[in-house]
Design goal:
The protein is mainly α and about 550 residues long. It has helices at about 1-35, 45-70, 85-125, 130-160, 170-185, 190-225, 230-250, 260-290, 290-300, 300-330, 350-360, 365-385, 405-430, 430-435, 455-460, 460-470, 490-515, 535-540, and strands spanning about 390, 395, 440-445, 450. The protein has one domain. It starts with a helix and ends with a helix.
Length: about 550
Amino acid sequence: AKMAAAASDLLTGWCLFGLALLAILIFCWIYVRKYQSRRESEVISTITAIFALAVALITSALLPVDIFLVSYMKNQNGTFKVWADANVSRQIEDTVLYGYYTLYSIILFCVFLWIPFVYFYYEEKEEDDGNTCSQVKTALKYTLGFITICAVLLLIGAFVPLDIPNKKNSTEWEKVKLLFEEFGSSHGLTALSFSISSLTVIGMLAAITYTAYGMSALPLNLIKGTTSASYERLENTEDIEEVEQHLLRIKSKCRDGRPLSSRDRRTLQQLEERLRTLRRRERHLESIEKSWWTKFCEAIRPLKIVWGVFFIIVALLFTVSLFLSNLDKALHSAGFDSGFIILGTNLTNPLNMLLPVLQRVFPLDYILITTIVMYFIFTSMAGIRNMGIWFFWIRLYKIRRGKTRPQALLFLCMILLLIVLHTSYMIYSLAPQYVMYGSQKYLVQWGVIVATYSQLGNIFRSLLYVMLFPFNLDQCIVTRTYLFLHKFWFFSAAYYFGNWAFIAVFLIGLIVSCCKGKKSVIEGEVDDDDSDMSDDELSVYYH
């Protein structure tokens, strides 16, 4: 009966996973179709963007699943469940590990091959309307550079050993043989881990740039709302009248046949461009004012404020926990050479305090972890949407509803893939022992004490526990996520400093967002370089 119940739970889990996968695909399709330009849309770029965005969301959802599975194999009294014998637990661990292998390999494929190829192919298609063969060759030529970088990272990760015994009398052939033996014993895990960690560092920079700002901008924008469409339309009408009067004054100078000066001609050209932009704004504001979507958003305005308050609370919880975790590492870790890794928890942060409490009521702790992961992803999307895509101080693309170019969507999805890789380490920084062991409990063999690993850090120091109770370490199963996090100490050190930068950028973004006024109801929808044809692309959203 217990085996049947376990099989029923497993089947239910797979059904829920299938429904979640379908929901992710539907969301990705709606999101990409909402922002892509109708005039410049391409099938291959659309499919690539939807696929990459879906991979990013599925990968981010794997962390809560990993934590849940290692926790589900044990009872509350610290013993393993009947069905969770050594073979079954090993199969579950391998399944999760293969899931990480697959998703991380797909991310490498997307970042280093597929997305660059589609991007350069579309760039060549815009510049040259020649045959498809030449466009493919040119795109492959540029993509070859990305493939070379990926191959170098895989080789470094595969054959640079982490711990090779130093034998003075060993020959060069023995050292090379030892390298291949180590690569075979790790089954390529080290090579993949090094490549993923390298991308995670880039994802850390993207998270510092976009996610930190999005965590402050998204909640405050929901709370403050946007300006009224009717009020903006009234102001826009006054601007149109003012520009038209200025144009009439300049044109009146040439009524008697005298030519305009070069300065007046430049001013006249600027005013005509300004007038075209204002008239486009007038059409957009009129459409928004009459649309049912605007009336619906006004009706749910109180709900938006509630969501904004909830999001800012989550952001502050996230930031305070990250600050205390980093401060703990700064005060109690072994230093830079160890990657600032600490054993146990010396400074308790709010998230570490909240998770053990939520563990008592299933599945509140998993809901919290999933909420934080999803919040991290959606604030990243909000940050990219608000800031656009930048290369240092150069703005490459804007993310605008119904007007986003295919190249910009590809960049957005690539950035999200990189940020997702950094998400696991961010969550680990907030609750390291929970990410490693979930809600598992163990039994101390000579007594009746039952303790969680999170409580263990507050009672004993972990190093002392390893020396005194070595047999208890095998009673809990480590999540597969942890295997990819601390293979290389120098990456851990980089993540540590990145966390400080993330906190600083979040605080700066919070101050800037508080000082800024309400956003325009057509923020980013109308620019001076837009054509009149682009107005038709937005009409579908407002009617």
